[in-house]
TrEMBL record, chains A, B:
A divalent metal cation binds at residue 142. This is Damage-inducible protein DinB. Gene3D superfamilies: dinb family like domain (1.20.120.450). Pfam families: DinB.
């Protein structure tokens, strides 16, 4: 793309990295806001704990290898690794590993790559941009649920608009 | 942009309309899933009712005039209009009006327009694309909270991935 057309893009790969990592930073602060015990034990309406929701979100984020290279690690393997995570410190360390991995692999996320069709764990087939949007939407959705858990526990969550 | 460059765009204005309206369609189904009384009376953790959250989301969506033309109706006026909405049928009718308005105004949402800087109600200043992303993120966030309300009420919410 010429410089002119780059300037006219609605959204660039760099914007998308900033957007995703911005959301991941906020979700990390929501994890931190939970007391250790409630993170792994509290829930409402028969739903998963916030640790459970955050592990789903972090497992999905390991899909950066799928987005960037079409390598989708079997979901069962990701879940098996995550089943070993039992403390807030371990969850945050896993979270931070993925954050660094996303930054490291991002150069592979070219405009062309965003237009390639992938199948994310057999769940959804579409262009990489749609899969990434789904990853981010799913994170916002579950994080919003964490806000209700925190409020119900009498804990003030981090401001939504501070990424 | 040439045909080649359009094909190489990460995301197009048409994609964004489909994305926003897809989310709005799902949120509408979440509103519908609430019994009338609980929609306006039930909440958790001292939060707003789901009607309250949905009215915030729909008020923000009237900002299509801001996104498209830089016309930001004063927030107090929007809130005053919304204060008259007292039933699920009225809320859904208001929702549908905005859905149609967004479709009607979308031709003004050109690639150039997405790059223009706007100030949304003095709350956030940035390019139109960032403001729209915030609108959508805020909707997903509050809708996720509605899922917790529904589950706590023993009601199965619509599937998250069905837009």
């Amino acid at each position: 793309m010429s410089a002119t057309n780059v300037a006219l893009a609605v959204i660039t790969p760099e914007d998308l990295l900033k957007r995703w990592q911005g959301h991941r930073g906020l979700t990390r602060r929501v994890i931190e806001a939970f007391p250790e015990k409630e993170l792994f034990e509290f829930s409402l309406g028969g739903m998963r704990t916030f640790a459970g929701l955050a592990l789903e979100v972090s497992g999905i984020a390991t899909g950066i290898d799928g987005l960037a290279y079409g390598k989708w690690q079997p979901w069962e393997e990701i879940m098996a690794k995550e089943a070993t995570i039992k403390t807030k410190a371990e969850l945050l360390a896993f979270w931070d590993e993925i954050t660094e991995k996303i930054n490291r692999e991002w150069p592979a996320m070219t405009v062309e790559r965003f237009n390639v069709t992938e199948n994310s764990w057999g769940f959804y087939q579409g262009p990489v941009i749609s899969i990434l949007n789904y990853f981010i939407d799913n994170e916002i959705h579950h994080r919003g649920q964490g806000y209700v858990y925190l409020r119900t526990l009498g804990i003030e969550p981090p401001a939504f608009y501070e990424h």
